[in-house]
Design goal:
Layout lengths: L1 H15 L20 E3 L2 E5 L5 E5 L2 E6 L3 E8 L4 E7 L5 E7 L7 E4 L4 E6 L4 E8 L2 E4 L10 E3 L3 E15 L2 E14 L13 E2 L5 E3 L5 E5 L21 E2 L1
Antiparallel strand pairs: 1-2, 2-3, 3-4, 5-6, 6-7, 8-9, 9-10, 10-11, 12-13, 13-14, 14-15, 16-17, 17-18
């Protein structure tokens, strides 16, 4: 239908003004696809063979002539928008669209499917992840992707919650306590099941004997038997990452 309308228009203009050459770009969309997509308050309109224009409540936010918009999400009390765009080679990424009167804040790519947004002036730090055509805000307690370790099934986010000076073997050292958040990868939902979103482990790090420090999650109300400093006994349900 789109092609037919364009051809009729071109013929009409040629008959009306025969001395002028008209250039008209014609592109098609898949059969059955509407002229635009509605996603909540967002609208995505095609502008050429591949690119899109992203609107919020019918107000243009940005043209993406070389990219296809797959999803969008309001952030910072509607003072910014995250757009998930796909390149022509199939690669996907998040882009931050700032409002005209608010240019603060930066978006950076973390490891895996995670992105971090930070507006230090406003005291805002948030972590998002991309799954298929969906942008998800993680638990508000997950503030930074700088402390992030991954395996095939889980992601562990961490930040220092407190520190104190201690004396070990006659030497002054600083002991840190970490706040951890455990997230299942490639599974819908904010955090690990079992209603455990964040936890304060009694022991936050574990050495596996190869000089590689790893995170240890101890189930609630469970204790590590560390009576033998060189041989800890880990309770059932302990997870190492």
């Amino acid at each position: 239908m789109t092609v037919r309308i364009h051809l009729v228009l071109a013929i009409f203009l040629t008959l009306l003004l025969p001395g002028i050459s008209w250039g008209l770009e014609v592109f098609t969309r898949p059969l059955g696809q509407s002229a635009h997509l509605e996603m909540g308050n967002f609208q995505i309109y095609p502008i050429n063979h591949f690119g899109n224009a992203l609107y919020l409540k019918q107000t243009l936010l940005k043209h993406f002539p070389e990219q296809s918009v797959r999803a969008a999400l309001n952030i910072r009390d509607d003072r910014g928008v995250l757009a998930l765009v796909e390149e022509q080679d199939g690669m996907r990424k998040l882009e931050l669209i700032r409002s005209a009167d608010d240019q603060e804040g930066r978006l950076r790519k973390g490891r895996g499917e995670f992105y971090e947004f930070a507006d230090y002036k406003a005291g805002v730090q948030q972590v998002f992840r991309v799954q298929a055509d969906h942008i998800e805000l993680l638990s508000p307690g997950v503030r930074t992707a700088s402390g992030l370790t991954l395996n095939d099934t889980h992601a562990v986010f961490y930040h220092i919650s407190e520190s104190q000076e201690v004396e070990i073997a006659g030497q002054a050292k600083r002991r840190y306590t970490f706040r951890l958040h455990l997230v299942k990868r490639n599974v819908p939902g904010k955090v690990l099941g079992g209603n455990v979103g964040s936890f304060q482990p009694r022991y936050k790090l574990w050495s596996d004997g190869s000089d590689k420090w790893r995170f240890v999650y101890v189930p609630e109300c469970a204790l590590i038997d560390n009576s033998d400093e060189d041989s800890w006994v880990l309770p059932e349900g302990t997870r190492l990452f």
